[in-house]
């Protein structure tokens, strides 16, 4: 259970576990300045921490049995800190026993050990950040790649809080005008016209739907990006799957439709971990491939961050392939497979590539051989770019926020839609106002203006101590 007590002073080691060149002990709370003045000795008496503004200085702190430790002190003595409470950080040698001695000294003089996530919880409770930004702090800590870190940093900087805050402000303004009209209904004073009300509801609904689209594209929690192999039966998907992974997990035969379900393997490209998925050939029915396998293929395509559309370079594109090529987006890479089997001339490949372009596809295209491994390095680069482009457009919300806030955002969007319908059908301003209040309540649950202990446990219970 998280603690909502913010009247005491907390302390914790804030640097990562294990030895390091430098370590950090963090303190926050009403008694922070008094603790610093009692325990810290500045090497320069003229630069001792100022009670009125943030300062930094070098000095020492006495720990167990008269031992003194050299420390760089950073002090925020007012509310202009992360927690909006007086806060200090002691930067010193990154030895765990020494850090623990400093922490024990602080706790022995009146501070208590911080609980997991308590510094960020205080920042939330003080209004420094909202709940989506608190979740982004944890996402920064847990990031395993550059894209995840970028997504978390953008959300922490207000990438989601800003748009949601603007929508809430607009809806509260609309509700205020509507309720003012209800208060003065007998005087027949109109504070907002029907056309203005519809316009404001339409604008709020569009903004909420845009955020919902981002969530639907991101709604896979913390899963690795997914790259799906796709194409006609016997187009070389399984051979390419094995070549990219360096395994023989997928069965490779000359019989069309051998892959009757889908296989998933972990593919590591540079600093990126991906799930590579081999699916059944894209036919409606055959004695080898069941309709259930086809359903699995469609589901995997819908969840894909990038698609590898495999075309057998030995033959002309089929009618189905021509139709699909006109619909592909920039998250798809066309892969010409089996280029080693018949010693295809470069002119033949150039003609095939030009033919594919004529069907409407203008994205990346790579010629490969799973047997000789020609083109696989170039394909790896194109896969990385396709995933990054897909995530840059789609993943602007961290996974924990998606899991927690999806239902509330759906409720908020639905309530705005119901309010708009009530205006159009002339069901009365009371009903419109009621739906607006429902929408605002749902948005409040997302950003944290409305919360319960269970929600705070869900968010802050994942943090480590010191954050």
Brief descriptors of the model:
alpha/beta, Rossmann fold, Gyrase A, domain 2, 15 helices, seven-stranded mixed β-sheet, six-stranded mixed β-sheet
Tell me the count of domains.
Answer: 2
Low-confidence sequence ranges: 251-259, 284-289
Shape: flat
**CATH class group of the largest domain:** Alpha Beta
CATH topology annotation of the largest domain: Rossmann fold
As laid out across the biggest beta sheet, the strand order is 3-4-5-6-2-1-7
CATH superfamily label of the largest domain: P-loop containing nucleotide triphosphate hydrolases
CATH 2nd-level architecture of the largest domain: 3-Layer(aba) Sandwich
Please report the total strand number as a whole number. Answer: 13
Short description:
This protein has helices at residues 32-39, 96-108, 118-125, 131-142, 146-156, 161-183, 194-218, 237-245, 291-303, 319-325, 346-358, 376-394, 399-424, 429-447, 453-460, and strands spanning 10-13, 20-28, 40-42, 55-62, 68-76, 87-94, 112-113, 226-231, 263-269, 272-278, 306-312, 332-337, 365-367. With 467 residues, it is α/β, with parallel strands linked by helices.
């Amino acid at each position: 259970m998280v603690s909502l007590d913010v009247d005491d002073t907390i302390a914790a080691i804030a640097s990562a576990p294990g030895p390091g060149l430098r370590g950090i002990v963090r303190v926050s709370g009403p008694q922070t300045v008094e603790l610093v003045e009692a325990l810290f000795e500045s090497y320069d008496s003229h630069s001792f921490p100022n009670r009125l503004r943030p300062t930094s200085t070098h000095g020492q702190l006495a720990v167990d049995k008269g031992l003194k430790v050299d420390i760089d002190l950073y002090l925020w003595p007012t509310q202009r800190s992360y927690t909006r409470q007086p806060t200090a950080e002691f930067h010193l040698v990154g030895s765990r026993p020494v850090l623990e001695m400093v922490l024990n000294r602080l706790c022995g003089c009146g501070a208590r050990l911080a609980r997991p996530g308590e510094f960020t919880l205080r920042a939330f409770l003080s209004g420094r950040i909202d709940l989506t930004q608190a979740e982004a702090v944890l996402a920064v800590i847990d990031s395993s790649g550059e894209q995840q870190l970028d997504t978390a940093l953008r959300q922490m900087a207000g990438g989601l809080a800003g748009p949601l805050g603007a929508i809430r402000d607009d809806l509260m303004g609309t509700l205020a005008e509507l309720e003012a009209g209800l208060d003065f209904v007998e005087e027949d004073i109109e504070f907002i016209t029907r056309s203005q009300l519809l316009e404001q509801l339409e604008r709020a609904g569009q903004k909420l739907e845009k955020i919902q689209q981002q969530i639907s594209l991101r709604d896979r929690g913390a899963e690795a990006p997914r790259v799906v192999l796709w194409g006609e039966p016997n187009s070389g998907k399984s051979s390419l799957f094995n070549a990219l992974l360096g395994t023989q997990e997928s069965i490779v035969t000359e019989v069309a439709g051998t892959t009757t379900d889908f296989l998933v393997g972990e593919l590591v490209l540079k600093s990126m971990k991906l799930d590579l998925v081999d699916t059944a050939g894209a036919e409606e029915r055959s004695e080898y491939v069941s309709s259930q396998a086809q359903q699995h293929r469609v589901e995997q395509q819908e969840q894909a961050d990038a698609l590898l559309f495999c075309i057998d370079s030995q033959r002309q594109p089929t009618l189905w392939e021509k139709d699909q090529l006109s619909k592909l987006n920039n998250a798809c890479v066309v892969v010409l497979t089996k280029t080693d089997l018949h010693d295809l001339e470069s002119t033949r490949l150039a003609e095939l590539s030009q033919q594919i372009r004529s069907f409407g596809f203008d994205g990346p295209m790579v010629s490969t051989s799973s047997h000789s491994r020609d083109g696989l390095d170039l394909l790896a680069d194109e896969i990385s770019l396709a995933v990054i482009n897909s995530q840059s457009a789609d993943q602007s919300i961290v996974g924990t926020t998606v899991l927690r806030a999806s239902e509330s955002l759906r409720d908020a969007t639905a309530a705005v839609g119901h309010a708009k319908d009530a205006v159009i059908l002339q069901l009365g301003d009371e009903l419109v106002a009621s739906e607006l209040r429902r929408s605002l309540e749902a948005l409040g649950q997302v950003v944290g203006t409305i919360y319960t202990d269970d929600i705070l446990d869900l968010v802050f219970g994942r943090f480590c101590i010191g954050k």
